[in-house]
Amino acid sequence: MDIGVFIPIANNGWIMSATSPQYMPTFELNKQITLKAEEYGLDFALSMIKLHGFGGETEFWDYALESFTLMAGLAAVTSKIKLYASVPVLAIPAPIAARMAVTIDSISGGRFGINIVSGWQKAEYDQMNLWPGQEHFLNRYDFCTEYVTVMKELWRDGESNFKGKFLTMNDCKLLPKPQVDIKIVCAGQSQTGVDFAAHHADYNFCFGMGLNEPKKCAEAVQRNVDAAKRAGSNTGALLLFMIIADETDEAAMDKWELYKKGADLDAIAWMNHQGEADPRASLDVSAIYMSRPPSAMNLNIGTFVGSYETVARLMDEVAEVEGAAGMLLTFDDFLVGLDQFGKHIQPLMKTRQGVGAHVQAG
Ligand SMILES: Cc1cc2nc3c(=O)[nH]c(=O)nc-3n(C[C@H](O)[C@H](O)[C@H](O)COP(=O)(O)O)c2cc1C
Which CATH superfamily does the domain covering 2-359 fall into? Predict the structure, then answer.
């Protein structure tokens, strides 16, 4: 089972709370996190792109670095871990994204891939007058299909004359070619998003769900498996989870309860308002899912709260979900959390035997 880390490119990571660890996104922090992840044998690191925060008392995600430039910096200081940047398809032309990818492919020695972000949050693009209108909610994955087609043509042929509904290339050139195939990943939850990923991506991220319920994601994974079968592809499902660990179940649960008490209700309300704008929004399969009960405070990311033994067991159970290719991890405190994972949790996992063995505790 592959394991990656969703590095905190925006302030406070993935917890909208005044009582959780408060921190700013800096290159130094993300560098330390990614170097730790590499040391502990994690397979990849992903950074998101977020161009408009949610405000509230914690100014949630009002502070955020840019994804490609961050990953370029990280590519230069790492040597093994795979790196994924997220592209906002409405804000960066496909040939520019393709060229940035070739550049990071060169810096990293072939360790780079792109997460396709179709755009669910109007304010991010409207603030720059880049929002195409309400119809984007309905056709955003058609746009992504053309976008990925152009990038793949450029990487394969060094040129593109693609003529589509949204994009037109006129003798568009891109050399050098990347040294390895640049992987495409996506995080579609809607059926359209999942189908897009099945046709065009190597992996699709889906939400792990619930509190200490590793198998609750089975239905979402199955939707990905079915879509890949229909598309005749091998697109794998990677599950997003948050880890809140401590020496005992009680100590970990105390942190979880503390974070819930400080929930930033204004930031949550703003996110919910943005998510509701999508006419296709449905509670189980779209961005709006993140901002609704039971746990909008951490975007309803499936969460494992417990001792090192408990978390290791729950993570192993995710591997038993038919079709799960791996996991993408977030933490309440990434530096502490990665040390807990690398030194105490991973060594207990049956599915990660021997990984990172040189840095285990005691
Ligand atoms: C692991 C993961 C990474 C994501 N990265 C971003 C991102 O960088 N920027 C963004 O605006 N949305 C991001 N999203 C949201 C997705 O791109 C997607 O819009 C959302 O999951 C809803 O799915 P849908 O587009 O099929 O409705 C991410 C979601 C997940 C689960």
Answer: Luciferase-like domain (3.20.20.30)
